[in-house]
Amino acid sequence: MCLAVPYKIISIEGNKAKANLFGAEKEIDVRIVDDIDKNDYVLVHAGFAIQKVDEKEANETLDLLRELSDIQ
């Protein structure tokens, strides 16, 4: 099973982007996702952006992840 997590794009330079998840920044590869800009949300798996998602969907997923964290 694979899990992709929504990150918010902070900046983009070439095929790399700086992205944020719960305040932690990570460099990700964005070469396989077209038309992304600063402040967009992307699903990230294994360091690669694999799909652009809208903010509402990203926040719903992040809320579920927070709930799972609270359960544990």
How would you describe what is shown here?
The protein has 72 residues and is of the alpha+beta class. The protein has one domain: SH3 type barrels (Roll), CATH 2.30.30. It contains one helix and five strands, in the order βββββα. It has a five-stranded antiparallel β-sheet with strand order 3-2-1-4-5, with helices on one face. A hairpin with a 2-residue loop joins strand 4 and strand 5. The longest helix is centred in the last third of the chain and has 17 residues, at 55-71. The radius of gyration is 12 Å and the shape is globular.
Provide the number of structural domains: 1
| Oligomeric composition of the shown chains | single chain
Classify the secondary structure makeup into a structural class. alpha+beta
Low-confidence runs (pLDDT<50, min 5 residues)?
none
User: Rough shape?
Assistant: globular
What key attributes describe this structure?
single chain; 72 residues; alpha+beta; SH3 type barrels; five-stranded antiparallel β-sheet; 1 helix; 5 strands; 24% helix
